[in-house]
């Protein structure tokens, strides 16, 4: 019996427990639900909790711990000379043992006896069953494979027996506990509260785990490259120096990447925020319901387009258009038909990224503006203000905290974009102010440093984690500042 079937059986036991618990509660009520402290559904849910949760918890723990115990026991029976080998070679040996064990399960009894009698026959027998191994196994490997299969089978049978016993026992205990004054609702709500707490803790712990994983590798990077050279360096050249040179780890200056990230993000926000906010104001305050029902879905289609498509659009359409139009403008102004806007440039990437971000600003701002109480609009209009004055002096200030949150999310999205920048702005790490020249961002370099053969022992690879933790710090600062703005203006309208 595999794990999927066992989970299905647990689900069936849970359904049966719910039905039995509900019927028992109805029977005890004597047709008068007021006689029971909790409704029948809560009693059924209480039975489900006891039938499913303990068994599922044991199943999860068993699936995690059992392979570790089996692996340790099998590797502990390896010969002394094998256990004296480095860990990597022992892992390779154990991998071969697992392959042999998987193949032995497919052999017939006669083939298994043949494999046990002659280890030279193991490889062709397994190959005939579709299991390939690197070489002819030794005797201890075949014995270890038999041990592995036996222990795995025993563990699975024990797991099934224990899980089903716990499920049935829990269901029986819950059904016996049902009584007229039994507080099933309170106990079920405690379980729900604990589940919500676990879910929120998972989100928090995941964030902490991500930060710690990046921070650990970043600290290792800073042991190789001084922090001041990384944070204040103006040259990005993460290549090994020539043979015999003293600086063999290249130059890892963050400033060009950070400048490119902020520059391209600023251009994108200058495009996305005004267009998105004005479109949200129009759809929320001026557009007819028919036009709004058509325009808003069409606008939100932009959010579903893959970023690589935007990158192609920038590479084949926007970039060449800006290059050609700059050529014509320069020719008309100076007579020299030379373009002053590169096809790959900051303005190209920022403009296309801004188009991509418009639905984020528009949709969120529209929802926020429409959530402003109608009484504020009516009060302003009743005092003689025009619609535009009402929007400017009443609705937008009231919706400002939410709009700031929408802009913050948009800024975080802009900072983390990669594909558009690769195709529209290039990969050259340059420090300059001309928006018509190419630059690159932190995310692009993270991808480039983690592409290819990876060795997490060199600064060329570990620098990606330093860049990642830097982006996290920037986003955190944006969140803190946005929270300050939200609290400041929210107090004004409470």
Structure overview:
With 494 residues, the protein is mostly helical. The chain has helices spanning 3-29, 40-76, 80-83, 87-104, 109-117, 122-128, 139-177, 184-224, 227-232, 255-286, 289-300, 307-334, 346-370, 374-382, 387-415, 419-424, 442-449, 459-490, and strands at residues 236-237, 251-252. Strands 1-2 form a two-stranded antiparallel sheet. Mean pLDDT is 84; it is low at 241-248.
Care to give the gist of this entry?
The protein has 494 residues and is mostly helical.
Output the keywords.
1% strand; two-stranded antiparallel ribbon; 2 strands; flat; mainly alpha; 494 residues
Question: What string, H for helix and E for strand, traces the elements in order?
Answer: HHHHHHHHHEEHHHHHHHHH
The helix content is: over 70%
Our estimate of the beta-strand percent is under 5%
Largest pleated sheet: 2 strands, antiparallel
According to DSSP, the number of beta strands is: 2
What form results from the Cα inertia axes?
Answer: flat
Cα separation of the termini = 60 Å
Low-confidence stretches: 241-248
**Overall pLDDT confidence:** 84
Report the total helices: 18
Strand order, sheet with most strands: 1-2
Computed Rg: 33 Å
SS content category: mainly alpha
């Amino acid at each position: 019996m595999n794990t999927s079937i066992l989970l299905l059986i647990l689900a069936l036991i849970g359904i049966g427990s719910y039905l039995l618990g509900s019927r028992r509660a109805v029977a005890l009520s004597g047709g008068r639900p007021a006689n029971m402290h909790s409704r029948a559904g809560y009693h059924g849910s209480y039975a489900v909790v006891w039938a499913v949760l303990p068994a599922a918890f044991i199943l999860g723990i068993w699936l995690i711990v059992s392979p570790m115990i089996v692996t340790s026991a099998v590797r502990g029976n390896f010969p002394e000379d094998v256990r004296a080998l480095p860990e990597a070679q022992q892992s390779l040996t154990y991998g071969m043992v697992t392959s042999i064990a998987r193949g032995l399960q497919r052999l017939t009894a006669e083939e298994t006896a043949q494999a046990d009698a002659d280890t030279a026959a193991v490889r062709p027998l397994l190959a005939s069953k579709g299991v390939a191994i690197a070489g002819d196994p030794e005797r201890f490997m075949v014995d270890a494979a038999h041990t592995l299969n036996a222990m795995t089978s025993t563990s699975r049978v024990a797991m099934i027996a224990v899980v089903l016993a716990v499920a049935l026992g829990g269901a029986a205990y819950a059904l016996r506990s049902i009584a007229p004054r039994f507080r099933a609702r309170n106990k079920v709500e405690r379980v729900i509260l604990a589940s919500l707490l676990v879910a929120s803790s998972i989100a928090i712990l995941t964030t902490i785990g991500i930060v710690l994983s990046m921070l650990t590798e970043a600290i290792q990077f800073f042991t190789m490259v001084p922090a001041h050279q990384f944070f204040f360096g103006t040259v990005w050249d993460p290549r090994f120096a020539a043979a015999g040179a003293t600086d063999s780890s290249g130059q890892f200056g963050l400033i060009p990447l950070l400048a490119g990230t902020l520059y391209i993000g600023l251009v994108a926000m200058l495009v996305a925020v005004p267009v998105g906010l004005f479109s949200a104001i129009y759809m929320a305050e001026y557009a007819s319901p028919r036009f709004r029902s058509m325009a808003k879905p069409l606008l939100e289609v932009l959010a579903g387009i893959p970023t690589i498509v935007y990158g192609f659009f920038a590479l084949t359409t926007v970039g060449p258009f800006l290059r050609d139009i700059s050529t014509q403008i320069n020719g008309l102004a100076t007579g020299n038909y030379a373009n002053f806007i590169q096809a790959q440039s900051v303005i190209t990437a920022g403009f296309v990224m801004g188009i991509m971000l418009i639905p984020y600003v528009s949709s969120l701002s529209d929802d926020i503006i429409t959530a402003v109480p109608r009484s504020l609009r009516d009060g302003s209009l009743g005092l003689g203000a025009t619609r535009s004055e009402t929007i400017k002096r009443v609705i937008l200030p009231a919706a400002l905290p939410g709009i700031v949150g929408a802009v913050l999310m948009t800024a975080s999205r802009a900072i983390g974009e990669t594909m558009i920048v690769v195709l529209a702005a290039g990969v050259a790490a340059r420090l300059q102010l001309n928006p018509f020249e190419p630059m690159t961002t932190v995310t692009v370099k993270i991808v480039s440093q983690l592409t290819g053969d990876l060795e997490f022992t060199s600064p060329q690879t570990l620098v990606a984690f330093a860049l990642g933790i830097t982006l996290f710090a920037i986003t955190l600062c944006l969140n803190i500042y946005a929270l300050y703005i939200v609290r400041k203006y929210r107090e004004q309208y409470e």
